[in-house]
Task: inverse folding
């Protein structure tokens, strides 16, 4: 018993500075990152003050915001890195694929920026659209090099973790928040009212629901 106290005291004095420096949130960040498809890149960029220097992450919504912020910053960094690689192109094909990628990286940054723009808040569904467009742009860039058969040299130089980060934000956006409000009476809002009637007439349950929604009594 007498030897236990000094041991615990040593342990506490060793752990306290760690807790003071990071708060308890680093453990939570690790656990939230564990719910993403690429936990390594999530942890790598969020737990590192070199990459993430935003507001303290306390709750899961803070975590999602931080993830978006870090993703946008990494995408900007990747864009300028890609631009700088121009002189490394060794032939016309590499130059063509690179040119296209510059444009695609620029679009990626623009789309990611739309998910964090405080002047134009967007809902969860819109965020999902911008994020998946951003991801598609990066995939198209890669595919461009592959289709021209010149993916061996330039692509490794353009290596970054932006696609993983975007996949992570896509996954977290899907999980958090309320479901998109784009379904009315069982049909997406993009189905025109006329078409809806047509579809409803061939779908007994839906038309029943529509009647209930319209307030008719039976
Ligand atoms: C990508 O993330 C890994 C950790 O998952 C890290 O080791 C690596 O340095 C990162 N690469 C770049 C280019 O940032
Ligand atoms: C993001 O958008 C805002 C306003 O729409 C603009 O001021 C800012 O420069 C943009 N940032 C990037 C990285 O594109």
Result:
């Amino acid at each position: 018993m007498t030897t236990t106290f000094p041991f615990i005291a040593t342990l506490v004095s060793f752990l306290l500075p760690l807790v003071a420096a990071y708060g308890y949130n680093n453990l939570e960040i690790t656990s939230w990152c564990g719910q993403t498809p690429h936990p390594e890149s999530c942890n790598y960029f969020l737990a590192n003050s070199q990459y993430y220097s935003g507001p303290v992450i306390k709750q899961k919504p803070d975590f999602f915001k931080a993830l978006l912020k870090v993703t946008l910053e990494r995408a900007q960094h990747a864009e300028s890195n890609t631009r700088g690689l121009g002189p490394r192109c060794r032939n016309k094909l590499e130059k063509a694929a690179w040119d296209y990628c510059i444009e695609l990286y620029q679009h990626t940054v623009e789309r990611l920026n739309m998910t964090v723009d405080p002047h134009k808040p967007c809902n969860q569904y819109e965020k999902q659209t911008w994020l998946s467009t951003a991801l598609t742009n990066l995939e198209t860039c890669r595919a461009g090099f592959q289709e021209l058969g010149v993916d061996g040299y330039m692509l490794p130089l353009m290596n970054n973790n932006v696609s993983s980060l975007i996949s992570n934000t896509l996954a977290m956006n899907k999980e958090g928040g309320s479901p998109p409000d784009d379904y009315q009476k069982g049909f997406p809002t993009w189905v025109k009212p006329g078409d809806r009637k047509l579809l409803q007439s061939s779908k007994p349950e839906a038309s029943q629901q529509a009647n209930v929604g319209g307030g008719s009594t039976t």
